[in-house]
Amino acid sequence: MDSSELYHVKQQFVLGAYTSLVKSPLPDPNSPDYHLALLYQARAYIALNDTTSALNLIPDGTDNVALKAAASLAQYIAAKDDTSGEAALEELRDLAVEIEGDDVQGTERDKELVRVLAGTAFARAGEIEEALESLGTETEDLEAVAVIVQIYLSINRPDLAKKEFDRAKRWAEDDLLLQLIESSIGLVTGKDNYSNTLSFYTEQIGNPSLTSPHLLTARGVTRILRNEIPEARSDLEESLGQQPQDAESLAAFTVAAGLGAGKRSEAADAWSKFETEHPSHPLVIDVTNKAALFDEAVTKFTVPPAIGAH
Questions:
Q1: Cβ pair 223, 188 in contact under 8 A
Q2: Residue 310's pLDDT band (boundaries 50, 70, 90)?
Q3: How many domains does the chain have?
Q4: Which of 121, 231, 247, 306 has its CA 20 to 30 A from that of 48?
Q5: pLDDT of 262 strictly over 80
Q6: Residue 265 domain boundaries
Q7: What is the DSSP letter of 125?
Q8: Does residue 47 lie in a domain region?
Q9: CA neighbours within 13 Å on the CB side: how many for 37?
Q10: Which tens digit of pLDDT belongs to each residue from 182-222?
Q11: Domain-located, residue 221
């Protein structure tokens, strides 16, 4: 069982309190919590897209498979071209094979983390089948289940995500991560008008021991879907106050601005800012493609003459 200190570190990571996590001092290197705390902190840096700090945190020349996997994931995300990105993915493939052998530098928990980090990288690369194979569809590691569920949700298969969640409930304890998985599925499916999802995010936001702009963004999105636009804007403005450049928070705020009762110029300004700062975001790409299709349709449409015109 984890110590109370390590449990808090895990809680911060699971709930997206990455900034406060990376600012927390690591335990003494001789502490039994040191290794896992360092891994959580390195992963928090990766989640913040601060791959340089993540790599600086990982000891040079480490033989531990989990630390090597975290470094490879950071290198994949930091890659500037396809060649370096593929090299990082290949390192993760090698590690996924290595952990199946007998001579492995790491615990069973480290091995599971290799699968999670490799699966995350493969999913980001669009290699969905490889990601699921790496994670293991019969896994009893809850972090792996969380990634599997996110993959299924990302490919519009909430039915498979729900099936994976139901399977996990048979063996997992009532873990915070299990509740988060359920809330993610509820956010996509809209079950009971998102009531369970909203309650979970509200409960966690009220936790005085952590500050997570990601929870505020998640609740803001939930409130948009419930048509609670002013409340959604309040959450998203607070989230952006903590992480001004976060793409997902900006995307949600842009949507809320367009749906609200405010000035249309405000919505246009929000979209312009978002489109300029995050041109490769899926929302920008989707809207751009739809605008192009609309323009194409307009060129094929002939306006009929007005009735009575000569």
A1: no
A2: low
A3: 1
A4: 231
A5: no
A6: 196-297
A7: T
A8: no
A9: 22
A10: 999 999 999 899 999 999 999 999 988 888 999 999 999 99
A11: yes
Express each pLDDT in 6-36 by its tens digit: 999 999 999 999 999 999 999 999 999 999 9
* Cα–Cα dist 6/33, whole Å: 6
Q: Has residue 65 been placed in a domain? A: no
> Rounded to whole angstroms, how far apart are CA atoms 34 and 18?
17
Which of 233, 275, 269 lies closest to 253 in space, CA to CA? 233
One-letter identity of residue 131: A
**Is residue 104 within 8 Å of residue 74, measured between CB atoms?**
no
Q: What is the mean pLDDT of residues 233-261?
A: 92
Distance from C-alpha of 67 to C-alpha of 41, rounded to nearest angstrom:
11
Q: How many other C-beta atoms can be found within 10 angstroms of the C-beta atom of residue 49?
A: 14
Alpha-carbon span 113 to 104, nearest angstrom: 13
Count the neighbouring beta carbons within 10 Å of the beta carbon of residue 149: 25
Q: CA triplet 160, 162, 166: central angle to 5 degrees?
A: 115
Contact call for residues 42 and 58 (beta carbons, < 8 A): yes
3 class by beta-carbon count within 10 Å (0-12 exposed, 13-18 middle, 19+ buried): middle
- For helices 247-259 and 229-242, angle between their N-to-C axes, nearest 10 degrees: 150
Check which CATH number belongs to the domain holding 253 and give it. 1.25.40.10
Structure-token pair, residue 302: 């002939």
Average pLDDT over residues 166-181: 92
